[in-house]
Write a structure and sequence with these properties.
There is one protein chain. With 288 residues, this protein is an alpha/beta fold. It is built from nine helices and eleven strands. It has one domain: Arginase, Chain A (3-Layer(aba) Sandwich). Strand 7, helix 4 and strand 8 form a beta-alpha-beta unit. The chain starts with a strand and ends with a helix.
Amino acid sequence: MLLNTYEPWKFAFSAENENIKENSYGIIGVPFDSTTSYHSGARLGPIVVREASFGFEKYNTIFNKDLTSTFYDFGDINVVPGNCKTTCDLVEDTVKELLDLNLKPIIIGGEHSASIGAIKALSEKHERLTVVHLDAHRDLAFEFIGEKYSHATVMRRAHEMGVNLVQIGIRSSSQDEEEFVKSTYNIQTFKNRDVHKHMDAIEYYLTNIDGPIYISIDMDVMNPAIAPSVGNPTPGGLFVSEIENILETLCRKNIVGFDVVETATNKLGEQTAVVAAKIIYDFLTLIE
């Protein structure tokens, strides 16, 4: 058990938190949605995603592979509702605890602000960190409704940490965000139409990333017909097969952390939770 955590549930196939195997993965949930600006409910994401994980077999038919990776579920962080900055600091501290155990973090959200603390901890440990960010939105606002720490500013805070950004699935942003992207050299964009029409080019780009990679997946990157219960659903999103292709390519690289955030539903078995659980399940199957 890590400090500042409790255990409401565990992800399917997780190992017992004893005799921890180094260089494996540790799951933490972040049940927080205090800066949500449209559809609330992401604070329940960690519970419903874990519950949905029990619908999968250990053999992954898509990748013709058993889930044999070792990972541990340490439960949820004791967040501070209404205080995003303090919650981000708690995420950072908890991820550092995982790193001290030689574990790589997997975060289940909760709103996207959870990524800020994780990326900060990892950017201090790893030079030349690249964040591969799958999302309908850029999340590059300097402030959102007067707040610097928010689901809409997470990648701006990450960029300030010196990471390289690869944004995939983008189809909604402000003019200020677009101007910011044009003004910097280390943000690569693949919009939703690029994914639909030019997946081979995206896979080639991802294959050639050097150094450590953190993957951040906002569930609103998905087509809302597939994953409707998210904070900010946006038409024109990705399909499950496209996420599978991206993960299969990235998992051949040096992945040092992973998150799936913005599942916003209180219904067990709801389709968004099932898709989010499948994304994590696929990732755990593919990592070596």
